[in-house]
Specification:
The chain has helices at residues 34-44, 59-63, 78-84, 114-123, 144-161; strands spanning 6-10, 28-29, 32-33, 49-53, 71-75, 90-94, 98-100, 109-113, 133-135, 138-140. By secondary structure, it is α/β, with parallel strands linked by helices.
Length: 162
């Protein structure tokens, strides 16, 4: 199985976020932003460097979701993303709001070499990434109703883990 050491997490574009709202990944599940749950799982899976595609007005909140010492770039600048992807190492991509859930199958998260992602996103301007590998364990979040549906699952996991 591919074990990426880098990850790109894509939050909504600024224009898609209602004025008095925030990106879904910054919404709380059991009093913690979903981005925090994702960061902890990715760190446990061996990811060492993160790139969060995020509007500037939410950059501080997004960065605060990672533990002290984590290597995190929060930006919506294409040049920053291209620099992060300048590697042949596999990079995990979460293209939308998601929470880690071992029971979730494949279909949302994927991994590909950084330079392959560069080529697909910049040159070909497509999300159809050649040679991408689907990564299981990520449940997509589509809105507040999905957050409400996953809270009992996370509450049960917390109680089980004590």
């Amino acid at each position: 199985m591919i074990r990426p050491q880098r990850a790109v997490l894509v939050l909504e574009e600024d224009r898609m976020i209602p004025e008095n709202s925030k990106p879904l990944m910054l919404e709380a599940v059991l009093a913690r932003p979903m981005l925090t749950w994702a960061a902890e799982q990715l760190l446990a899976d061996g990811v060492q460097r993160f790139f969060v595609v995020c509007p500037p007005r939410f950059a501080q909140a997004a960065g605060a979701c990672f533990p002290a010492g984590a290597v995190v770039t929060v930006s919506e600048q294409q040049t920053d993303l291209e620099a992060f992807l300048d590697t042949d190492e596999p990079v995990l991509v979460l293209p939308r709001a998601a929470v880690p859930l071992a029971e979730a199958g494949v279909g949302l998260a994927y991994a590909a070499a950084g330079r392959t992602l560069q080529e697909a996103w910049r040159v070909k301007m497509t999300n159809a990434v050649q040679d991408a590998t689907l990564i299981p364990g990520w449940l997509p979040i589509f809105g507040p109703e999905t957050v409400a549906e996953v809270e009992p699952i996370f509450r049960a996991k917390q109680q089980k883990n004590g």
